[in-house]
Structures are given as C-alpha cells and as structure tokens.
Amino acid sequence: MSSALPELVDHIVSPHDLILDGTKIGWYPERIAAWERGEKIAPITMDVAWTRKCNYACGFCYAMLQASEGQEITRDIALQFLDDAAEIGVKGISLISDGESSLVPFYAESIAHGAAVGLQIGIGTNGRVLRRPMLEKILPHLSYLRFNFSAGTREGYARIMGVKQTWYDEVLQNIRDAMQIKRERGLGVTINLQLVCDPKDGAELLPFAELAQRLRPDYAIIKHCADDVEGHLGVDYTQYARLDETFRRIEAMGDRDFRIVVKRERIKDEGRRDYARCYGPPFITQMSGNGLIAPCGFLFNQQYKAFHIGNICDTRFRDLYRSDRYWEVMKYLASPEFDPRERCGPNCLQTQTNSFLFHYKAGRVSLPTGAAPPHLGFL
Predict the structure, then answer these.
(1) What are the domain boundaries of the chain?
(2) Domain 15-361 class in CATH
(3) Is 14 left (phi over 0), alpha (psi -120 to 50) or beta?
(4) Alpha helix locations (H) across the chain?
(5) Tens of pLDDT, residues 268-296
(6) What is the mean pLDDT of the chain?
(7) Full-prediction pTM beyond 0.70?
C-alpha cells in the first residue's frame, strides 16, 4: 500500500462503499506512523457543536450527562475555529456534539466557510429547522447529512424524542425535500436516517426500517445507546440480544441503492471493551457547544475537569492544540494509568478507533489495502 494519503474527492457515493466506523483510521498510515513515533498529530475528525441548546428532549440523549462550565460560541469564534482546524490539518468536522447546532444564526455560514477552507463537513441534526431554504444553502457544502429520527411511528417519535407528534410529519417533509434537492442538483452529499435504539423501545425498529425503505435515503443506521459509568440513562445492554432476529430482518431490507446498517459490533458486546488503552483521542477529538475542548464527549462533564484542555472562547484552537496541556492530557489517556475498561462509560465515540489502534500496536491487525472508502475525513 502506498504511504500517500488518498485524495479526498467529491462525487456521488454508493451507500455500499461506506465504512461507518472508526476503523477507517487505517487509511491514514502516515499519521499513524507519526503517532507511533511520539509526534504531535492533528485530529483526523473533530466532533463539535456551536451550542448546547436543543429544541428536543430525547430520553436517550447523552448530552444530559455532559454538563460543564463554558461560554457562548459566537459567529466569529466559530469561523476562527474552522480556520484553525484547517490550518493544523484536521480533515473532517462533524456538527454532531452535545447540542443542536442548527439553532444558531450562523449555522449555514459556518458550513459554507468550513468547506471553503478545505474541511469536509458533516452534520447530525433532528432536522426540525432544516426547511427547504436552509437545505438549499447547506447541502452543496456537506459530505453527509444525518437526520436523527429515533422511531418509526408518530406516537413513538413524540414519546422517545420529547416533542409534539406533528413534528414527525414536519421533519419527514424536510427529509423528502433534502433528498429531492440532492437528486435535482446532482449533489455528492449522502443523506441518512439514524435511530438510537434503547432496547425497551424495540417495537419501533421495524416501523423505522419500513419508513426508511419508503423514504429511500442513501442509508439508515440503527445504533446503540451510550451511557456513563454509573448508568444514569438506565440502558440495559443485556437486552439487545433479544432483538437479534429483528435486526436480521431489518438488515435484509436493503437493496442495491439503499442500505440499512445495524451497528452490531457496538451492540453485541453489551458495552464491554476489547482494548485496555485509550489511543483514539489524538485522532478524533471533541468540542462541546460551550467551547470546551476535551479528548472525548464522555469527559465533558464538570467532574472530569482534570481532562479539560481549554475553551476556544478564551484561547484560539490552534494555540490549545500546540499547548503542553493538550498533549499532557492525550499522553495520560494513552498510558497504562488510564484503563478505559474501568473508568469510562460503555460505547464511547472512540471505541472502534481505540480497538483498531490497540490491536494494530499488538500486531493483531494490519493496515488496510485497496481503494480508500468515501468520507475518509470522518472516523
């Protein structure tokens, strides 16, 4: 395999070419090699938000466990952050962190600006405010658009996501509009629906899959719930096994142009880890909607202040990245003193990246060969 990083291009993506987890890190051999030499490396992906506010009240939302001190991110600070991310070598920015970023007035401008400075931009959103005029502005600049739609029925949507039943229909129209704009303009953005599955809401799985099959986005995802060490969200991971037959039926509902993905690797392990070191944060770092930079969203909460790196409202991101503090935190997390099996909640964002790097360093997995998958800027 060539050591050169594959060129990232904008083109129409087949859903079956996508790799939807952090094992894509294997296509960054030069950055992995630099990391192994102990060099400072820029994150490949940053998951960020422009606000911690949200217009939904989803019962499974991990953001409820992430409260920390912070500030309001202004337009100028957000655009400056994107400039800094591009300057240091970040590849992809995902607006999917601990708030609904579409609520800020500079949302569309930030997406266009990020793309203009060379970043791949992806968004995860409840889609409530993404009506056609907004979609017309943002879709040409996006690599992916994910609608968080965690039910298949109107009643289930309202109950699980904490909103009015009428919002179900309104968001469905926004999804239809997004797909129509994509088709009419021949855009390369992939559009997907995601259901976050709490086992107690398993009755919503088939209706969701049937709805997605009718809507026909590029793909649909069913994924696990995350929880903290204390289990404050009350997710019973042992109950995913009883949904296995339903998952199998759903996976068979895809076809050549449409894919339904059940993230089984994150479900079948019941939240257990197969790695003992946290190597992922230098490659995929997170920012809270209050400006806080931390190695991962699990550590946003104020009780983990010892791992907080700084705030972009106080210090430019490029300066935080170059600071001793940034690398002290990263090195500690990767050390034997920090065992994620004991100190972290189940199914964190970096799980697949951590697992790949842990087993790669142990010689149990190799770097991939062949053509790089699409959306390489998002781990």
Answers:
(1) 15-361
(2) alpha beta
(3) beta
(4) 29-36, 75-88, 107-116, 132-138, 154-161, 166-185, 205-215, 244-251, 264-267, 317-322, 324-334, 340-343, 351-361
(5) 666 678 899 999 999 999 999 999 999 98
(6) 90
(7) yes
